[in-house]
């Protein structure tokens, strides 16, 4: 599986988690993995990254909230929120993903899955957040 394909799988699972809620997500995740053909290594990588995103979620949501002037987390569309959470994790916490790649891939996911104007919204929020990333990542 390519990184882009893995990223799309992660987005779908993050969206499901937001859509179904924490309680129902475990069952939804297992059902998802049963219906998606993938190598064991890909499933393990995706599962591990989902866990790491979940651990960082309070900080990620705080970054999104503090950089999305006039938008509270619960007002952001579920698609855009899932993309933002994934992109912020990759840009800030994942040293293997360059910040520019995280932003570009997020915009592409926003174009594919988001509402009209969602990609621009994602790009704007991420632009605000990543201006602080070099200090956070030490880049």
Kindly describe this structure.
- This protein is mostly helical and 139 residues long.
- It has helices at residues 3-20, 22-35, 40-67, 78-93, 99-113, 118-130, 133-137.
- Helix 5 (99-113) packs antiparallel against helix 6.
- The longest helix is centred in the middle third of the chain and has 28 residues, at 40-67.
- The chain is globular and about 40 Å long.
- The two termini are 28 Å apart.
Topology record:
Layout: H1 3-20, H2 22-35, H3 40-67, H4 78-93, H5 99-113, H6 118-130, H7 133-137
Considering the chains and any ligands shown, give keywords for the structure.
139 residues; mainly alpha; 7 helices
The outline comes out as globular
**Mean pLDDT figure:** 91
Helix content range: over 70%
Number of strands: 0
Quick summary:
Helix content is about 80%, strand content about 0%.
């Amino acid at each position: 599986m390519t990184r882009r394909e893995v990223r799309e799988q992660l987005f779908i699972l993050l969206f499901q988690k937001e859509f179904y809620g924490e309680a129902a997500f475990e069952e939804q995740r297992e059902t998802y993995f049963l219906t998606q053909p993938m190598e064991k290594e890909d499933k393990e990588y995706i599962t591990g990254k989902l866990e790491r995103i979940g651990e960082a979620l309070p900080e990620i949501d705080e970054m999104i909230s503090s950089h999305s002037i006039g938008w509270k987390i619960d007002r952001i569309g579920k698609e855009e929120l899932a993309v933002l959470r994934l992109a912020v994790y990759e840009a800030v916490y994942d040293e293997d993903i360059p910040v520019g790649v995280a932003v570009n891939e997020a915009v592409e996911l926003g174009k594919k899955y988001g509402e009209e104007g969602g990609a621009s919204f994602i790009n704007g929020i991420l632009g605000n957040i990543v201006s602080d990333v070099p200090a956070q990542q030490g880049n």
